[in-house]
């Protein structure tokens, strides 16, 4: 069965046509522009979906299902987006109803990290495992948990909100309203914020040459030997190591898979993160 897949993130929207083997036949993405509010973003989602469905060679008439992933919290059964920290103003938005009406096909909603976890479990880095934790590190930080081959949703679909575990009780305010969450310390925007704060010390850094610093800029300058960028990045790895170590200690999954925009850093992230996790996990196999 071929389906239309839609991913709603705080930074970008993506849509794709995916066949039963997990192959992507067509795809597209546009900026979310979340500050414009739910109505404008929903319009953008529908336009993107119609564009992908209309691509040459795509048999749109044979696509009868839509799968939607969105940052939590969500109500899967009611098809509602509840109040994601990275989508301001999205309070109990009837997403599934809107998409079904606009595109004329039944849709199902899932937390985006859960959907990604299932994808990795079936087709990607988690293939062959029975248990897996997927972490997305991007505009926000989320988690999806696979236990005995199935998504673990928890009470009221609340499982996997790894980004909102508290690491620093008096740390920076998170979008969820708490302080010191992993997301407030190690997400893409948080890395950029800490880089800007580090410049306040007056130390020399090429970060000063960049008008709007991003996490990708920090990674690039780490590789070029910038000391301030390296300090910010090492802090990031430390915070992520704490979060991953806590998840492993609680669940002892066979695999931990990390994705999202920040994960595109590759070895500068994964090599020190593996070392940090091994250093911190004492009672569980890693």
N- to C-terminal separation? 37 Å
Major β-sheet strand ordering: 3-2-1-4-7
The CATH H-level superfamily of the largest domain is: ATPase, nucleotide binding domain
Low-confidence stretches: none
Work out the number of β strands.
Answer: 11
- How many helical stretches? 8
- In CATH, the topology of the largest domain is named Nucleotidyltransferase, domain 5
Radius of gyration using CA atoms only? 19 Å
What order do the helices and strands follow? EEEHEEEHEHEEEHHHHEH
Shape: globular
Oligomer: single chain
What is the CATH architecture annotation of the largest domain? 2-Layer Sandwich
**Largest sheet: number of strands, sense, barrel closure:** 5 strands, mixed
Q: Which structural class best describes the helix and strand composition?
A: alpha/beta
What's the rounded overall pLDDT mean? 92
* Secondary structure: helix percent: 25-40%
